[in-house]
Design brief:
Helices cover 43% and strands 13% of the residues. The protein has 310 residues and is of the alpha/beta class. It folds into 2 domains: 134 residues, 3-Layer(aba) Sandwich (Rossmann fold); 156 residues, Aspartate/ornithine carbamoyltransferase (Rossmann fold). Strands 7-6-5-8-9 form a 5-stranded parallel sheet. Strands 2-1-3-4 form a 4-stranded parallel sheet, with helices on both faces. It is globular. The chain starts with 13 loop residues before the first helix and ends with a helix. The structure holds phosphoric acid mono(formamide)ester and norvaline. Norvaline (NVA) binds next to α6.
Length: 310
């Protein structure tokens, strides 16, 4: 059977995403009731992270433990890859030990090379291009919160970054109602918007891009943001602080959204920059549900990708 990678949400169909989310919601309930079984007994997942991580790393580790398997952290700085061993050889060797690997890195092309040279499933734990596990978990959180996805108006305010790219692609695949407000010069890649438009089959419009947070937020049910300076962009921080002024989620912006609107952030957050503390820690915030759902969604993903018969 062909191995299943998850390099981007575009590796899944709309039906695939919906059934993954349903499985994750079932597994979350089973876990709460002390049921769940050990479907990945004997399986070993590798975690190769070239950038820091709290949620992704720990939720994959805990998820494997709950599924009866093991996760091992492979620090890139401590393997022979750092001394010039090729990615091809490393991927080939690790494929003989592991049943799957989660990789957090910079270039999407590097992930694609890992997928080509591995015989085990490769899962994207965040790249500069996208963050599929995050957005799948966030869509699960929206479904739990609203009981549906159809008709939920999502506003993304902030940087046209990896998280925005995954939102746009997922909105294209699932027909979600998504409007993004980003500062000029920080737009998502045009080809990502193009791909979402070509995949969009929903009743409304494909993802829309504007430069005005108020326009994006008016009438929204979900207000989403991410950091203004992503990992690897630290040198741009001062310029970004200037460019993103006015793109903060605060109580004024939230007041433009629909009554009952929720606020989401993938975390880590910078209170006082992309979002104010009162909103991030306020009653509309779903941040901890989002973080928890990383665990449940990824467990469903691991069962599907590491034991294809399940
Ligand atoms: N949201 C997210 O991916 O968090 P980490 O960087 O802590 O994994
Ligand atoms: N855009 C952020 C997401 C962190 C989970 C980054 O890449 O740093």
């Amino acid at each position: 059977m062909k191995k299943k990678d998850l390099l981007s949400v575009t590796d899944l169909s709309g039906a695939g995403i919906r059934s993954l989310i349903s499985a994750a919601i079932r597994m979350k309930k089973d876990h709460a009731r002390g049921r769940g079984g050990r479907p990945l007994r004997g399986k070993v997942l590798g975690l190769l992270f070239s950038k820091p991580s709290t949620r992704t790393r720990v939720s994959f580790q805990v998820g494997m433990a709950q599924l009866g398997g093991t996760a091992i952290v492979i620090p890139p700085s401590e393997i022979q890859l750092q001394r010039g061993e090729t990615l091809e050889d490393t991927a080939g060797v690790l494929s003989r030990y592991l049943d799957g690997i989660v990789i957090r890195t910079f270039e999407q092309k590097e992930l694609e090379a890992w997928a080509r040279h591995s015989t085990i499933p490769v899962i994207n734990g965040l790249s500069d291009f996208c963050h599929p596990c995050q957005i799948l978990s966030d869509i699960m959180t929206i479904r739990e919160s609203f009981g549906r996805l159809k008709g939920v108006k999502i506003a993304y305010v902030g940087d046209g970054n990896n998280v925005a790219h995954s939102w746009i692609l997922a909105a294209g695949i699932l027909g979600l109602d998504l409007t993004l407000a980003v500062p000029k010069g920080y737009e998502p890649l045009p080809e990502v918007l193009g791909e979402a438009r070509s995949r969009f089959r929903g009743a409304g419009d494909p993802p829309r891009l504007c430069h005005d947070p108020d326009t994006a937020t008016a009438g929204a049910d979900v207000l989403y943001t991410d950091v203004w300076t992503s990992m690897g962009q630290e040198k741009e921080r001062r310029g970004r602080l200037r460019a993103f002024r006015g793109f903060q989620i605060n109580s004024r912006l939230l007041s433009l959204a629909n009554p009952g609107a929720v606020v989401m952030h993938c975390l880590p957050a910078h209170r006082g920059e992309e979002i104010t503390a009162d909103v991030l820690d306020g009653p509309a915030s779903l941040i901890l549900d989002q973080a928890e759902n990383r665990l449940h969604l990824q467990k469903a993903l691991l069962v599907r990708h590491l034991s294809p018969k399940k």
